[in-house]
Amino acid sequence: MAVLKDNYISPGSAEARQKEINDFKRILSNYFPDQKAFSGKRILNIGCGPVTEEPALNEYFSPSKLVSIDNCEYRKEDAIKNNRKSFVFGDLRELEKILSEKDRFDIIIGRNVPLSPGGTGTYPGDFMRSCTDYKPVTENDMWLGIFRKIKGFCEEKSTMFLTFLRTDEFLRAEKILEKINYSIIKKEENSHLCFSDGIGVAHGTKDHFIILAQ
Ligand SMILES: C[S@@+](CC[C@H](N)C(=O)[O-])C[C@H]1O[C@@H](n2cnc3c(N)ncnc32)[C@H](O)[C@@H]1O
C-alpha cells in the first residue's frame, strides 16, 4: 500500500499532465522514428479534448502549424486554463466552417477518437456525459463523413496517426480509412503505456491501439 501511495499522481494535476505528455512523446518517437522527415509540417489534431498532447506535438514535430479541434465546452475551458494555443472550438462535422478553404495539413493526429456508435463520445461534444448517461443513438454515424471531410483538407501524401481506447473503435477505423483510400502502414496494440492526465479521458491509460496510415 505504501508503494502505491508514494507513486500516486493526482488526476488533473500538473504532474499527471506532464506524465501524459512524456508518455505520448515516447509513443510518437516509436511510430515516427524519422523525426526529421516530419519536422516543420502542418498538423491537424482532431477530437483533441483539453489538448494535453500539445507540448508533445510541438516538441516532437516543431510543426509550422498546429490546429486542434474539439466541440466540447468544458474541454475548451480546460484548454484555455492550460494555455493550449492550438485549441479551436468547433464540430468536426462542420470542418469547412472551422478551417479556411485553402487550409492543408500534412499530418492528422487523432487520439482516442470515439468512433464507437452509442459508445464513448457519440454525443456531440459530450464525452463524459456519454459514459455515464447512455441514450440510444438517434443520428447516423458521423465518422465516415468526418474523415471524408478531413481528407479534403489534407495534402495528397498526408499521414494519419490515430489512437483508440477500444478494440471496436480500432476495427472500425480500419474500415473507414480503407473507404477513403488511405493505406494502412501499421495497426496494432500500442505496447507503450500512456497514463491519462485524468482530464481528456477520466481514468487509467489511453492510446491502447494505434493506426498509422498514408
Ligand atoms: C475520448 S476523448 C479524447 C480527447 C483527447 N484526444 C485525449 O486523448 O485526451 C474524445 C474527444 O472527441 C471529441 N469529439 C467527439 N465528437 C466530436 C465532434 N463531432 N467534433 C469535435 N470533437 C468531437 C469529444 O468532445 C472528446 O473531447
* Cα-atom radius of gyration: 16 Å
Report the CATH architecture.
3-Layer(aba) Sandwich
Order of helices and strands: HHEHEHEHEHHEHEEEE
Poorly predicted residue ranges:
118-136
Number of domains: 1
| Mean residue pLDDT | 87
Please tally the β strands and state the result.
9
User: Which homologous superfamily in CATH is the superfamily?
Assistant: Vaccinia Virus protein VP39
Task: Tell me the number of helical segments per DSSP (H or I, 4 or more residues long).
Answer: 8
Percent in helix: 25-40%
Structural class: alpha/beta
Coarse shape: globular
State the strand order across the main sheet.
Answer: 3-2-1-4-5-9-6
Characterize the main sheet. Answer: 7 strands, mixed
Bound molecules: S-adenosylmethionine
- Strand composition percent: 15-25%
The CATH topology, please?
Rossmann fold
What is the fold's blueprint, element by element?
Elements: H1 2-7, H2 14-31, E1 42-46, H3 54-61, E2 65-70, H4 73-81, E3 87-89, H5 95-98, E4 105-110, H6 127-132, H7 143-152, E5 154-164, H8 167-179, E6 184-189, E7 194-195, E8 205-206, E9 209-213
Parallel strand pairs: 1-2, 1-4, 2-3, 4-5
Antiparallel strand pairs: 5-9, 6-9, 7-8
Helix pairs in contact: 2-3
Summarize the structure in words.
With 214 residues, the protein is of the alpha/beta class. It has eight helices and nine strands. The protein has helices at residues 2-7, 14-31, 54-61, 73-81, 95-98, 127-132, 143-152, 167-179; strands at 42-46, 65-70, 87-89, 105-110, 154-164, 184-189, 194-195, 205-206, 209-213. It is globular, with a radius of gyration of 16 Å. The structure holds S-adenosylmethionine. S-adenosylmethionine is lined by residues 47-49, 52, 69-72, 75, 91-93, 111-112, 114, 120-121, 124-125, 127, 200-201, 206.
